[in-house]
What we know:
- The chain has two domains: about 1-115, Vaccinia Virus protein VP39 (Rossmann fold, 3-Layer(aba) Sandwich); about 150-310, Hnrnp arginine n-methyltransferase1, CATH 2.70.160.
- Helix content is about 25%, strand content about 35%.
- The protein contains eight helices and 17 strands.
- The strands form four sheets. Strands 6, 9, 10, 11, 13, 14 and 15 form a seven-stranded antiparallel beta sheet that branches. The protein has a five-stranded parallel beta sheet with strand order 3-2-1-4-5, sandwiched between helices.
- It holds the Pfam family Methyltransf_25.
- One of its GO terms (molecular function) is protein-arginine N-methyltransferase activity.
Amino acid sequence: xxxxxxxxxxxxxxxxxxxxxxxxxxxxxxxxxxxxxxxxxxxxxxxxxxxxxxxxxxxxxxxxxxxxxxxxxxxxxxxxxxxxxxxxxxxxxxxxxxxxxxxxxxxxxxxxxxxxxxxxxxxxxxxxxxxxxxxxxxxxxxxxxxxxxxxxxxxxxxxxxxxxxxxxxxxxxxxxxxxxxxxxxxxxxxxxxxxxxxxxxxxxxxxxxxxxxxxxxxxxxxxxxxxxxxxxxxxxxxxxxxxxxxxxxxxxxxxxxxxxxxxxxxxxxxxxxxxxxxxxxxxxxxxxxxxxxxxxxxxxxxxxxxxxxxxxxxxxxxxxx
Length: 321
C-alpha cells in the first residue's frame, strides 16, 4: 500500500480516463505533434518519460528509428501497448514499465519527451524527473545531453479580481481556467509578471519563487492571483519562432482581499518546490499593498516601459507571448 500512496502523493498516478480526455485537447495535441516533428530527425533514438497513452511516442515513431516509452502505471502500460499496436510505426515503440525518476535507456538518445506538466510546475514531477535524468544520463553516457521537449517553461503571476460566487454559493477556492477562452469571472488588475524562465537543458534550481512588486493598472478588489505557465515545446531557429502550449491557468484566492487603485504597487512573495502540492504556493504566499497612487507621469512612464508581450489577451485573459 505504501507504493500506491507514494504514487498518489507524487502526482505520478493519473486515471486512464483523464489521459483519454487529454487526447481531445487540440492545443496540446497539435503543439506536441508539431514540436516532435521539428525536433525528431529521421533515424533518431527517442525517450519518452511518462508515456500515458503513448500518443507522443507515436508522433516520434513516424521519423525515429527507436522510441523508448516509459510509464509507471500498469493500466496505462496496457492501454499504450494496445493503442500503439493499432497505429502506424507503433512497432518502433518499446513500452517499458518503470519509474521515470530512475529509468535510463540502454543507449544514448537524441530526444527526450517529458510532459509531466502542471501549471506552476506544481503536483507533477517535471522538474525533479528531468533534473534526475540529466545527472544519471551524463554519468552513464557523458555528453552531450539530448534535446528536450518541451525546451523551456515561462512562469508568470498576475493580480486579479475574481468572482467566487457559484449559484449563490460563495466558495473562495482554487480555480482552473482555460487559457484559450475569455475569463468572464476574472478582471485583470495588472499585467502578468514573469518570475521564472526555466530551460530544461540547462542547470536549474528545484525552487519556484518570487519576491517582487506589481503595478496595479485598474481599480478593484484584489482577491486572487492568477498563475500562468507557458511551455516552449520547441524553438525553430530557422524561422526564429516557437511552438507553445499553455497549461490551464490557476486562480489562487487570497486570505484577505485588498482594495487597490490604479497606480498602486503590490508586493508579492512566495516560494515552493517544483512538484509540490497546489497549496504549497498559498502556504508561502505573502501579498501586501506597499504604496498608493503613483504620480500620473511616473505611472505612464512605467506603463510605457512594460513589454507588450506580457500583456493579457484578449480583454480579461492573461498571456505570456
